[in-house]
Fold:
Amino acid sequence: MSKAMEHVRYLVDVVGFRAPASEGERWASKYIAGVMEKLGIGCQVEPFDSYKTFSYPLMIVWAISVLGGLLCCSHGFLGFLLVTLGAVAFYQEAHYRGWVSRLLPHEPSQNVVGRIPAKGEARRRVLITAHYDTSKTGLYFDPRFVGGFRTLLLLTVVSALGLPVFVLLGGLFWSGLFGLLRELATLWLFLNILVLLHREVYGKNVYGANDNASGTGVMLAIAERLAKEPLQNTEVWVAATGCEEVGLVGMLDLLKRHGQELEDALIVNLDGVGAGELKYITGEGLVKVFPADPELLMFSAEVVRENPELPLAPKEHRDGLGTDASGALINGYRAMTVMGLDEDGVVPNWHWETDVVENLNEKNLGDAETFVDLLLKKIDHEK
Structure:
């Protein structure tokens, strides 16, 4: 059994569920910190506070929009103000700057950050990240529907952001057409609220073997290699982030805390690398695509070309929620994700009860580890 798989099995079989800001997540952070300390890697557990689910902020935002959509016929101006407020609030939540989520009750969580100094003079810095928290099931992620996740989410985006337009034009021009669009958008957002409510009441915690014990395990295996043989001219940070599943909260705290140190760093994010076909992601985002760092893409292409036995390929990822790399890219940092995707472009067993160790491919873990190892060496050798 590989080192990466050993870490995966501990996180899944011993720790179990690692819900955001939960005791399981804290237990996992202690394990990760213990591994780093045993390897002689100086590490810090960095606390932060986070809300515990992405459902409630979105339910509140969509409820504002639905209320506005219902009121616009009898109280036109008030309805327009509410749907506009809902649209702005949704846009902010989608870009991880939401005021609604900040107002919710918060609980303590933590990142685990280790630093491996360069053997010689450090001329570059690389950050390898992987979130270690887990999610829960929901109708969005049912295997019968998850292949159409992007289409369903795009309908929600159009409904939330389009409602102010439908309300305004419905009052000025062809009220029949835009009145119908307003009603459909309002109904769709109401259905989304019910779906999220169902998730909170009936959703089951998942073990997260692939998402993302796999990425955490590979990150720790790479850290062990580097602890024994550091890079010559590159300082490497390894960061296990918490509360990624609620809105990249751990990653955003990491960037806020260390933003100046990471300003020119190359960030390699490992997420769901234990199943599917491995890809290095050229850009990610549902509507607006945030391109990955060009230098990381260039180095990745060279690694794959020079090592044809590695089954990695470039791919744009627009069929899921944001990764930790999204949080970095949105804020102007240099990042790229490595992940495994199925034929529908979705992470296998995503947020479902089938995300267990038995459904992992250990070769994927080895290939991801080898790819990142070669990528780091290429970065280190670059003049």
Notes: The chain is about 50% helix and 15% strand. The chain has two domains: 3-51+107-136+205-381, 56-100+141-202.
